[in-house]
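Hello,

I think I submitted the magnesium ion job twice by accident. Can you confirm which output corresponds to this input? Input:
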Amino acid sequence: MELKVLADVGLVGFPNAGKSTLLSVISAAKPKIADYAFTTLVPNLGIVSYHDGKSFVVADIPGIIEGAHEGKGLGLRFLRHIERNSVLLFMIPVDTADVKKEYAILLNELEQYSPELLDKERMLAITKCDMIDEVMMQQLAKELPRNVKHVMISSVAGTGLNELKDMLWKRLHSTFPANHVD
Ligand SMILES: Nc1nc2c(ncn2[C@@H]2O[C@H](COP(=O)(O)OP(=O)(O)OP(=O)(O)O)[C@@H](O)[C@H]2O)c(=O)[nH]1
Ligand SMILES: [Mg+2]
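Support: Only one job matched these inputs. Its output is below.
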């Protein structure tokens, strides 16, 4: 049996990227969080409250790994069920050696699995930003992929979360498609 996930935003990232932690701080959902891979085995949904009683639904899905399109891991199979007009929020930890490379791997896995997934809007959250200082953050900003809008967040320190929600809300309600040139 497969779960039909109806979400506005799908969280896409390697295991341990902080997907479940983010969901736990922006919604009332209480997903399991741990410092090992594949803590999340099935999607968790959370409702994120926005201004004036508005809200949107976020799906935290299992981590995606290299080779996922060949059946490794669990995450990709759930993406097929995320709403047609949804946004994919890629999540990459700030201590990742090569953010561009990790983004490219995730994108490639999605494309190999189902090319239509690349028609969805994409955004990038750099997670766990409490681990670095302002100077390192500015340095990192220069090394990020240029063709996707990004936001620096820390679910632990609570930073960047309002900016993230604003960004997602605007994207979800914009009539203009973002131009992806990956
Ligand atoms: N320092 C710091 N650690 C974080 C932050 N967010 C998550 N973590 C830690 O990162 C680890 C993984 O967090 P999860 O939220 O379980 O990661 P996930 O992406 O859901 O992982 P899977 O379910 O395995 O795909 C946990 O030890 C969290 O406490 C953050 O903002 N700052
Ligand atoms: Mg998880």
